[in-house]
Every structure is written in C-alpha cells, then in structure tokens.
Amino acid sequence: MKQAPITFDVIATSGNARAGFLRTRRGVIETPVFMPVGTAGTVKGIRFEELESPDLDPKIILGNTYHLWLRPGIETIRACGGLHKFIGWDRALLTDSGGFQVWSLGALRKITEEGTEFRSHVDGSLCFLSPEVSMDVQVALGSEIAMAFDECAPGQADFEEAAKSIALTARWAARSRAKFDELQLSGADSGRTEPLERISGAQALFGIVQGAGHLQLRKESLDRTVEIGFDGYAIGGLSVGEEKNVMFEMISATALNLPVNQPRYLMGVGTPEDLVEAVAEGVDMFDCVLPTRNGRNGQAFTSQGRINIKNSRWTTDSQPLDPACECAVCRRHSRAYLRHLYLSGEMLSSILLTHHNLAFFLDTMRRVRQSIRSGDFPKFRREFIGSLSSNENGA
Amino acid sequence: MKQAPITFDVIATSGNARAGFLRTRRGVIETPVFMPVGTAGTVKGIRFEELESPDLDPKIILGNTYHLWLRPGIETIRACGGLHKFIGWDRALLTDSGGFQVWSLGALRKITEEGTEFRSHVDGSLCFLSPEVSMDVQVALGSEIAMAFDECAPGQADFEEAAKSIALTARWAARSRAKFDELQLSGADSGRTEPLERISGAQALFGIVQGAGHLQLRKESLDRTVEIGFDGYAIGGLSVGEEKNVMFEMISATALNLPVNQPRYLMGVGTPEDLVEAVAEGVDMFDCVLPTRNGRNGQAFTSQGRINIKNSRWTTDSQPLDPACECAVCRRHSRAYLRHLYLSGEMLSSILLTHHNLAFFLDTMRRVRQSIRSGDFPKFRREFIGSLSSNENGA
C-alpha cells in the first residue's frame, strides 16, 4: 500500500457533518478538531503539561511561520532540531504559511508576483516572504502539516480584486508545491520520522481556497487548487470582515466540493457556534485565537454564552465560570476570584480564563464528534446553539 | 494538655541551625521553611495545582494584608468565606500586617501615634491603617498566622530615629495583641477550624522585632515584644538598604535571644545564600519575592549561580536552566526556548522561570532540613555556597 504523509478516514457521517481519523507521523487526530494557536511556539499562557492534561489534551496545535521566522529565526530553530524539539512538544504541529499575517499588516506590505515585501514588527527591518521562503521556513520548522503560501483578499473585495487574488494564489500554490517537494527530497524537513503503517514519515502540504465572498471565484479557486494536488484543503480568507451569512454561504459551497476523502480545514474560524455550524457543512479542522485572546481580555466562553469577568455582578459570586464545566478552573475557582485576578492585573487571570476557554472549545469538539458517531448531531447542534443564548446578559 | 493556635517542635539541631515541625490548624510545616509570596491572593504566574505538585509543594504561602484590603476589599473576601475559600487554597496562609507595604510608600504616607495615613495605589483614595484595622483585616482573611502591625525604620536609620521606631512598634504590638484577642473571642476569625490534637483551631499572632542596624535597639525591641507575648517572633526591617554584614549581625544577635521553643521568622529575606546563612543563625521561617519577581524579569536561580536568560549566549543552548535541577521546566525546556519566550514577551517565560525559581528555593530548603537532621548541615552549607559562585558569568 502506498505510504502518504497523512491519511484520513471518515468513520461516521450525519448529514454533511463527518467524524474521522486524521493520521499524522506524530499521532492520530480525531476530527472534527479544534487546533489551539501557538503563535510564537507557545499557546499563550498555557504550559505544555496543562495542554497534555485530560482537561485540554489537543492532539495538534498551530505554530505561526511569520512569527517564528522573524523571532527566534529559522537558523536558531534548525540548530535546536526543529520546532518540536525547540518548544518541547512531540505531538502534531500545523504551521500556517505566513500569508495571512503578512496580509494583516495592511499598508505596511507590498505584494508583487514574486512575493510580499514588508517591515518586521520586531525590529522594523525589510523582509520578503514568498512561496519559496515560506516552504523553506515550514520545512525547517518540521511541522506535520504545512500550508501553501496564499494571498488573502479583504472580506468585501469586489469581483475583479478577488479574481486577481485567486489567480495569484493559484500561481503561488503551484510554486509552493514545487518548492516543498524539492525540499522534501533534499531531506531538509526537520520533523521527518521513520515510516509508520500507511504513513511515509514526510511532511504534508495543504492547499488553500480563496475567493472572498464570490461563489464563482471560490469554485474556480477550488478547481485550480485541487488540480495542483495537496494532502488536504483549507478554506481561507473568511472571518475577515464579510457578513456572517456570506461566510456560511462560502463555507457551504466550498466544503462539499472539496475531495471527500481528504481533510477540510476552515482557517481562523471561529466562535463555538461557528464551529458547530461549519461542522454541519462538512468541515473537519479549525483553528482560532478566540479562546486564548478573549481569555486574556477577561471573556469566558460558557455553555450558556459568554461571560465578561470584569462585570461587577460577579464581585461576590462563588459559582464557577460555567457550572456545567468540569475543567480544573471551574472545579476550583469562583467568578469572584477570577474577577479579582483580572482587575488586579494578575497573570493568573489570563492563565485560568485561557485554560477554561480552551477546555470549552476542545470539549465542544469532543461532544461534536461523539454526537456524529452516535447519530445525535442534529439534536446536539440544536441544543448547543439554543443553550448558548441563555445567559448573554452576563457578557 | 493546653491547646494553642500553633505548636513548634525542634527535632534536630546543628550548631545554631534547627529543624522542626510547625503545626497549624491547616497542616504541618517542616522548618526551616521558605514561604512563597502570594501578594494579591496568587503566587504570581503559578497555578495552585502547580504549587501543590511535588516540584514545589509549599505547605504555607503568604498573603498581603495591604493589597487584599485595598482590592478586592475585606467585605468581598468575608462574603466569599475568607481568604482560603476565596482563592481556593486549603493549606496554611500567613498574612503580613501591611506595615511594611505602607512604609514602602515613602513620602506618600504619614505616620502618627494612631496609625498610618496614605493614598491607595489602586485608586488614590485616602486610607488609614492602624494596629486595629490590620487585625480586623487579618482576622477577616482568616490566615493561620497573622502579624502584629509594626513600624519599619530605614536600613541606615540613626539611633534616635530607630529608637523612636521601636518604641512605636512596641506600643503598636500591644494594641495589635489586644485587638487580635478581642476579635478571636468575638468569633470574627474566618479561618477558624475545629480543635485538633494540641491545636485550638484559632489564629496565631506573631510579634516583630525592629531596631534597624543597632544591636542595643534590637535587644530592647526583642525584650518588649517577647514581654507582650506572641505565638512566634519575626525579625523585621532587614534587607532594606543596610550592608549585608550589618544584616547578619542583627540576625545573629536577635535569633539566638528569641524564645527557643517558638518559631523565628526572618521577614523579606532573601537570596538562596542568605537563607542558608540565616538558618545557620537559628532562623526557621522565610519569605521573599526574589524567586517570583526575578523570574518575571528573566533571572533564574541555579545551583551554580544566577542566569540571565536574556543573554545571547543562550540563543541555541539546548541545556536546561540548571542541569542539576529536576523540576518540570528543567526536565522539558531548554535555555534557548526560555530565552525566545522572554524576548517575545510571552507569558510562558514568567510562568516557567517562576516555577523553576520556586522549585530551586523550595528544594534548597528541603536539602537544608535534611542536612540538619542527618548532621551534615556544615558540609551542605559549605558546598552549596561554593557551588553558587561557579557560574556567575551567566548572570
């Protein structure tokens, strides 16, 4: 049997939703999966021991090519044996391409056919990122899944702008594929492992579908990306300013047209309700900074909606953040204490809210998977979405 | 047998150093002991689960009366059932009196016979702290050990200034004792427990010896404090600007004259070498912000001296902070990664360096206790101090 960088097996479906196993050279990932974001080689505020604890236990996290390339720099990470060894994490990693981060710099960057020129947010120096550089970096990082270098259009880009963007993305995807394959042959992948059953030990590469809010362009981008051929496919350029209904229209039209036997990854999305709704459209993988970033800003995601821990109504509230949650934070600490920590500027506030939020996102996905397997996904979806809106007065 | 708030039994001595058991209503503390500082109800950057793990495992931590009184305020903590319940910690707590924090405000405070007037660092409001207020607050916090409200003189105070200060401290100590006893009788102590063997379930109160750098005043302050009668005695007003040799002269002269059957607590001191040297002078208890504060600032304490993690020599160093250390940080992470986290401003830098530093301080005290019990303290002391200076080039 031919060995591949990853394998993907769907084991249950419910409507368009599907539950499966994504096998990588560093572990098996049950899908649908939420991947915590570890921008600069750390999921902000969370120790790796906590990540590995049953409360959280993600089998894969993200690293950001843009951030790690600028600091500590790829020579340092290579000298330290790749990203896994550098950060002390031996489970799976997915690295983005840096395209989205550079695009986020807005006026500070200049895009040409060759790539993107920009000023480093670290030291102001002039930098240049291209498909080839991105592949160089991601192969040196040695992630299990690398992403093609893409160009993202604004959420409300008009047809012409978005059409130019997907054409450039397609040319960059082909260059990403070529450079990536060359690097794999050269042995530059620092995460390489011995072959396992059905698994080659090499790195996987995902393509990215763009097209802003234009169905026709999404379709065209999908065709061009699939034609090049990747180990999995991502839907990019969403949750970047477009209306929510447009976002779901694009997800729906794209996900179902992607190859059925490969994983589908919706990049940078979203709220707990977004995740559940996108699963219903056939998406398998997600990442988002919401649980970590909002946790640092004092916002908790709960089964009854969001809580703003700064709210004075929690001053002497001895209840946990979410009475329905069994995470370590909810087992031990009250809203009153968490509010005090936040108002006092204590680091523990970020640590504990981040932990709870990640526990909520990861547990939600566990329940999503379970409900797809048991055939109860429509019921789970209805009850989950209904419950979320029951406590919005605490937000 | 008469029941007391705490009991203290010396089980081994080596010269003036002594190893013992300090029994409180919330657990037994082996001495000599280092108490991590939990200023605002959290040991900064460390989750309680980590504190309770074998790496750290302190049986007692500090809370700061000044900080907790100002925020969240005593009404909130009382409504939440006392400090233990509020923060989610059921081991022993020691609260300071707030005297030192107010003294640290310098020109922002005004001292009278009645107490100290100052402006809150939280909201600028005018506040007044006195022996009576401090006792009110500490009893509401419900710590196992409360401290008398004292007045601290600068490290280089002249005889006259220091003499005035110890006289005021003595009058405040008497007022602290009276108010504290009255509050205990009234049932205001929120940490009260059922009586245990030899333990009454009530809160303990320690007196504080002052006197700046003047032996005669230290002696006089000691006599006046012991005359009032407390459950234990602290040496205050050291490590506040005086020379190191003066500090040790004061410790030496004071510790040995304190009641032999009660615990001796050196407040706010110090470096690992300070702790070992003060144990040799007969001190039993310590607290200091050094491991936590310096950890946040990128400094690691190791068996070979201090390391400044910012130093570029660690850029690709794959060794742990301290190859002789077995803490979770040293088992998992390299100096190169920790340097990257620090330079990237990642919270995990503070979390991990604080963890390691606390592990080093607490493990040092474990080894101090063991060496006193086995009769090897002089050898341990000599080797420990010698080893500390072997790597100062990394500082």
Q: Strand arrangement, largest sheet of chain A? A: 4-15-14-13-12-11-7-6-5
- Helical residues, percent of chain A: 40-55%
Question: What is the overall shape of chain A?
Answer: globular
Biggest interface between protein chains, with counts per chain?
A: A-B, 41 and 41 residues
Q: Count helical runs of chain A.
A: 15
Distance linking N and C termini of chain A: 53 Å
Q: Kindly state the mean pLDDT of chain A as a whole number?
A: 96
Percent of residues in β-strands of chain A: 15-25%
Which regions of chain A have little confidence, pLDDT < 50, spanning 5+ residues?
none
Could you explain how this protein is built, in words?
- 2 copies of one chain form a homodimer.
- With 395 residues, chain A is an alpha/beta fold.
- Chain A is built from 15 helices and 17 strands.
- Chain A starts with 6 loop residues before the first strand and ends in a 7-residue tail after the last helix.
- The mean pLDDT of chain A is 96.
- At the A-B interface, helix 1, helix 4, helix 13 and helix 14 of A face helix 1, helix 4, helix 13 and helix 14 of B.
Task: Give descriptors for this structure.
homodimer; 395 residues; alpha/beta; nine-stranded parallel β-sheet; three-stranded antiparallel β-sheet; 17 strands; 41% helix; globular
